[in-house]
Amino acid sequence: MGCYFYLLKLHHAKMEINLSIKAKSLKGLIETVKKNISLRSIVIISIVLSIISTTYFFFNDQIVTYGDAESHLNIAKRVVHSITPGVAQIGGIWLPLPHMMLVPFVYFDFLWRTGLAGSIVSGVSFIVSSVFLYRITYFLTKDKVISFVSFIIFASNPNILYLQSTPMTELVLIMFFLLSTYYFIRFIYNSENIIYLIIAAFFGFCASLSRYDGWFLVLFEAMAIVVLYIGKKKFWREMEGKLFLFSTLAFLGVLLWILWDYLILGDPFYFTNSQFSAKTQQQNWYIRGELPSYHNIFSALYYYFVTSLSNSGFLIFLTSIVGLIIFLKDHFKEQKIYLVLLILFVPFIFNVATLFLGQSVIFIPHITPNTFEWTLFNVRYGVMMIPVVTILFSYLLTRRSVTTYFVLALIFVLQFMLYFVGYSDVITLADGTRGLSKAERHDAEYWLKDNYDDGLVLIDDYARTVSIVRTKIPMQNIIYIGNRKYWEESFNQPEKYATWIVMQRDDAVWQGIYGKPHIQSRLFKYFNKVYTSPDILIFRKIRTT
């Protein structure tokens, strides 16, 4: 019996020695990582990941898979190359800043047609986002390793890597969101430093001109300023000055956009009232009974929760919930931390609110009814939650045990295995290649690419009948609704400007020309029908000798 206990103690001692060695090895590894982590290393890794992923998606012809991706490219292109070039080509629906950032690059036809102009803008946004996600995490944890892990999880997320390769605007928003959030958090903890407040307001201004999510960001930052000063002796005097200073710059973007729509389009709320607005699109879904979260808060919460989970990665997201619980437990009595979380969770609040109000719609597999025509649409909205998810996931490393490090590393590896074997979709790519967001490629597009020779082309670009970037048509040869004079006169005299007319059943050109007998007769007088399909017709002006 004594021998048995001796062997048991010996085995236990060996286990303790092994664990001690492992702990020392882990500690040594952590110290090595700490010494080598710098903002420079974050930038270098981000650049490498950006170039590799963009190259991969470029050679797989997946940079301009989204219909919206081409629209963003075309809006920017028309500013410099159009029958009527100028800033007015920005329009009044999508916010202008991402398109203005594209302008220097779409000037070059190769970058425009390939979509690489958008890859440059989104790629730079990705790099800046990576740096400031690291800085936010470091400010909250004061730990380089935890901050580096947060960066790695963000920068290696396949949905982030795909979108940063495209002309979509999500990475631009994430960049300005993280920039504004970082400086606003610095202000929360040092409210006497108004420089932080001014910088936060400036980047909030940029966010508000990037996507409408940015409007909620500056609104909640303004609310946080009020809450920050509640209970202080000079509450009103201090709060009033800081709130005015912040709002003057942060809300300027909102006011400028409303003024722009009024001056250019005659309606200050054109972005929500026009036939091209998201609100109008959602009304069509509502009529069809396919707006599941409208005035249903539980559905709105459920849909965006699942969408966030699908973008972040199933295992990463669920683990981050544990991280949130631990984070709240550790900072339970720290009032300012609740303001930090409020700002970080603004994307969740915004998307749930817009789903509930019927201003947006998300279709995602497994929870969208099979009776719906589509079950995959707008799932990219969930990428906005990835930054806070990575922060909360990495926060668990504050427990500093070998077991914690091992479990989190295992979860990270397993999540990537799920992507690799196809169990977890890269859902943003799936939406762009087989969801409703996919850019349709009709046979008419291939025909036009092979047969277009020269001349102006009248087309309803909103209907996306053919892809302009994939054809040989120069943008300055396109007549669309934004070329008002050419567009309106062509509906009375189709032959006046256009050499080619492309129409799709029930689009604006079809209704305005083909659908009116007296104009249709004029059409056939001056044009030959050169392409026919059940839904698309192409006409070419009769050549005169």
TrEMBL record:
Q: Which GO terms describe its cellular component?
A: plasma membrane
Location(s) in or outside the cell: Cell membrane
Q: Where is the chain membrane-spanning?
A: 37-59, 110-133, 145-165, 171-189, 194-210, 216-231, 243-260, 301-327, 339-367, 379-398, 405-423
Q: How does it sit in the membrane?
A: Multi-pass membrane protein
Keyword list (alphabetical) reads: Cell membrane, Glycosyltransferase, Membrane, Transferase, Transmembrane, Transmembrane helix
A Gene Ontology BP annotation from the UniProt entry? lipopolysaccharide biosynthetic process
What main location does UniProt list? membrane
> Which superkingdom, per the lineage?
Bacteria
Residues forming the Glycosyltransferase RgtA/B/C/D-like domain are 117-260
Q: Which PANTHER family match?
A: MANNOSYLTRANSFERASE YKCB-RELATED, MEMBRANE PROTEIN
Q: Which named protein is this?
A: Glycosyltransferase RgtA/B/C/D-like domain-containing protein
Annotated GO molecular function terms are:
pentosyltransferase activity
Presence of keyword Glycosyltransferase = yes
Stored Pfam families: PMT_2
Q: Keyword Cell membrane on this protein?
A: yes
